[in-house]
Amino acid sequence: MAAPPLSHPSIPAPGGRSPWSFRMSGQSLAGAAPLGDAPSRFRLFPRRLGAARRFVAPVVLVLLWQLAAQAGLVSTRLLASPAAIATAAWQLIASGELAYHLAVSLRRVAIGLAIALGFAVPLGLLAGLSRLGEDLVDATLQMLRALPFLALVPLLILWLGIGEATKIALVALGAAFPIYLTLFGGIRGVDPKLLEAGRVFGLSRAGLIRHIVLPGALPQALVGLRYALGTAWLSLVVGEQINATAGIGYLVMDAREFLRTDIILVGLLVYALLGLGADQLVRFIEKAALAWRPSVLGER
Amino acid sequence: MPDPVLHLSRFSRRFHGPGSPPVLDALDLIVPAGEFVALLGRSGSGKTTLLRTLAGLDPVTDGKAVLPERRAVVFQEPRLLPWKPVWRNVALGLPGPSAAARDRALAALAEVELSHRAEAWPLTLSGGEAQRAGLARALVREPDLLLLDEPFASLDALTRLRMQSLVGELWQAHRPAVLLVTHDVEEALLLADRVLVLAEGRLAEDLAVGVPRPRRRAAPGFDALRLRLLATLGVDEDGHDATARAA
């Protein structure tokens, strides 16, 4: 088969001229400057706005949403207008309600995560560092992992009631598995050649763990932490719909009773921002703890 | 002759238990203190197996091995810990207070001309720099036996020449016994007092290199030794497989 660039000039252009001769004559007639300027004249947004251009589409969407709400195209009972959401957010902030519910939710996540870390890290270390530990721990946890943890809600309610304990337990359950799995995998994935080098240079077993195994497992474990934070928020959303009397989830459920879609949307926004914030936090930890990685080095 | 630092007698190693063909077959080897020995052999001849045992990575199960307490290895890949700066890699496993270990590591890095990279992350080093860091990590232990496992194999040709002369100089300065595992006959002849060829688990050749130092490839006698070693390895001068042609 002939390569496309070779066959291209043989296609006859309209008027019997080849596309090449047409372009050349156009250039010589019009001169280089107007041709060069033409694209920038039609550019909608100057390039120097840079990152701001990425916000154009969302902003336009929000404006359209607002216009549609004002024109009555969208029922404000089903979907509050952006202005109404902003007002509701401001009222919730000014009254201190949002801060209160946010604190309750953050406390649940913090305690749940702490419990998850408290269980998952020792178990991950035990299973990762010893064959006996793996046999004792890993098979059991892999079986439990196969169970969708949100399906445990009925049991948790029976065991722990409908108070804080169930919500915190859900967060802890959701966050524990990613931490355990990535820590275990990270430890087992440490380059055996590095371990050999460590042995040759006289490191004891404790030294190998401290200088090679744990730092080697850290990148994976931090990926697990990021993932765990994600599931922690998810568990929180579910947990806060069980008879909550405080928390962002309560705010949303309560607003539903009164058809306050503006407050519901504020709650969703807060959930999204919390997720983003948590992700940024882990990125920050990664940057500090994994400064040696080429990807991090490249960002400097 | 000085006391041997390394003494193997009837040392064998099998991978699949008694009765299986041995990788190393009743090997006898004596290396005196300060001698530079090069070990040649085709792939699969047991070079790496021997080196692993000498490094203490594999146990001695069959035969006897007398090894010095202080040994150090430079691997084919640098095997630096990427999460520790270069000097901490060099100081890894050194006994004593960390300030003293740091001073020793920096001194070793100066010897391999890598002082300016002491604080660098290993993944930012070039191939040659990483191997020099590996060399510093071995030297800082003041070994009686230095094991070099094809340390120049993955370097480009020019870097390899510089590394070879660096190893020669460091050996002259510190005089450890050296066992250099290599595929490169010329490298062996440039550096070693004695060249061994391992074939089918036995020493097929034990050749003293009488060429005076510093050595040049053009030195009289160099080429004859090279051809002889190539013949033992089963390759003729043009690189053809001599054993295959004979068969």
Q: Can you put this structure into words, describing what you see?
A:
The complex is a heterodimer of chains A (300) and B (247). With 300 residues, chain A is an all-alpha fold. Chain A has a domain at 96-299: MetI-like fold, CATH 1.10.3720. Helix content of chain A is 75%, strand content 0%. Chain A has 14 helices and no strands. Mean pLDDT of chain A is 83; it is low at 1-40. The longest helix of chain B has 18 residues, at 157-174. With 247 residues, chain B is an alpha/beta fold. Chain B folds into 2 domains: 4-70 and 143-246, P-loop containing nucleotide triphosphate hydrolases (Rossmann fold), CATH 3.40.50.300; 84-141. In chain B, the strands form 2 sheets. Chain B has a 6-stranded mixed sheet, with helices on both faces. Chain B is globular and about 50 Å long. The chains are: A mainly alpha (300), B alpha/beta (247). Chain A binds chain B through residues 193-194, 196-203, 207, 211-212, 215-216, 218, 290-294, 297, and chain B through 55-57, 71-73, 75, 77, 79, 81-84, 92-93, 95, 121-124, 137, 141.
